[in-house]
Amino acid sequence: MAPPTIAPVLIDRLRGDLETAGYDVVRLAAVLGPMAVAALERENGLPAVLVARSSDDPAATLARLLTLGDAVPTALAEAALPTLGVDGARALGLVDTDGESVRGTVDLRPVDVGGRVWWLTSDQDSSTTSRPVEPDHVLGVGGASRTLAELTVRTPAVRALDLGTGCGIQALTLTDHVDDVVATDISARALSYAAFNAALNEVEIEWREGSMLEPVAGEQFDLVVSNPPFVITPRTGELATYSYRDGGRSGDDLVRDLVTSVGDVLAPGGLVQMLGNWEIRRGRTWTERVEEWLEASGLDGWVIQREVLDPAHYAETWLRDGGISVERDRAAWEAAATAWLADFAAREVEGIGFGYLILRRPTTDRPRRHRLEELAGPVGPALGEQIAESLRVGDLLDGLDDDSLLELAPVVAGDVTDERHHVPGSPDPSVILLRQGGGFGRLIRADTVMSAVVGACDGELTLGQITAGVAVLLDEPIGQVRDAVVPALRELLVDGLLTIP
Ligand SMILES: C[S@@+](CC[C@H](N)C(=O)[O-])C[C@H]1O[C@@H](n2cnc3c(N)ncnc32)[C@H](O)[C@@H]1O
After folding, report:
1. 0.90 cut: is pTM over it?
2. Listed residue (131, 199, 168, 190) closest to 2, CA to CA
3. Ligand 1 pocket check: which of 187, 191, 197, 356 to mutate, most ligand atoms within 8 Å of Cβ?
4. pLDDT tens across 203-243, in order?
């Protein structure tokens, strides 16, 4: 199926009709109701189709036509598109007509990403078409797209790059805080969808076709975001590959190469935020492997492993994503799963890690800072702000020796709670935990001294005064209390459990 056509006059009419119908996230949720919306999130469109068919709201008709793949009577479609009309929608490549009915040929839906609602076109997924997706499928907004958008630091910047833009969602959100946005993709189809989406949402983006960093070689950016095709697929030539997820490289080479070379296009102080998979090979930890990549990058690196799957689970996940299931075709499923397991076995892969990579080019030649950690729990909203603040505080503390640190007067963040666990009958807690409600939801094990110091951080007293007071209270030498808590205080400050007013 061809991507939509960029015809500015028709796109203006389309935008007007979508606005008039109130085709947005809130209105659709109200029209369809919570059960249908929840079912849609599980890729079951039937309840939404049934509700929308019984509604005379134009937003419901547009949902049938543009999101749900339902055949809509022509007269009803004309009424929902009063200025564009069915002919205009067909000329834009959004619908096909069949006698008395009209059916959408692309997916066009409102999505709430990056703090704003966008109209996004992409290819229809297999739950809409009931067919496996094509190798050049252009993906709509998925979980990974939302994750990256949530992570993205949204401080104003001059130039940003979205590498592997797909339908353009990351690039669109960047236009809200970046002067010049460049977006690349190896797929001309994806770039056509993305350019259509930019026109529909009235934002300017520069598009470049090509692989990885080739289209921007020699240029510099303040921010690079990428949700790259990081899925590890056996390169047997027999398995179906999809441009939206397979970069055509062996193992995790694509992610490694991007990490080690992205510094070439990064301005001093510039930031990279990307998602990736990495292989965990027998006898080696994930941190050893990723640390090598960071070393080779010449950049600061903060890598957060969110999840690890074993090879069988990984293969199942991506086979299901590609529409191959035991129920549908056992022989095809077994052949593909066998190829996947053999590919991982050949490199002695025992696990596949997924996570976030945040890289930065410092403005000086100071030693690079690398932080690799596992954080598997739920994360709070506005992660991008938390990450920006962590980087800012990390820079600030880098220049402070311990004596200067003790002159700070931090305050406990509002989302931090203190949890105490007691052995039954014991008056003293055996475990004290500091729990961060937002951000990365960190859980920090504390002892009585640490908990007393943190509890006294009211923004008035300095850490020097607090540690001296706690030492007197607990009848311990001041130096010993300070030596014990200062490294942990640095971490609490960087991670936002303590803030500097
Ligand atoms: C997982 S999709 C991400 C789409 C979008 N940025 C998002 O966040 O939803 C990966 C994109 O990378 C593109 N891609 C695949 N191989 C590439 C390569 N070698 N160079 C650049 N882009 C590539 C695919 O066409 C696809 O659009």
Report:
1. yes
2. 190
3. 187
4. 999 999 999 999 999 999 999 999 999 999 988 777 778 88
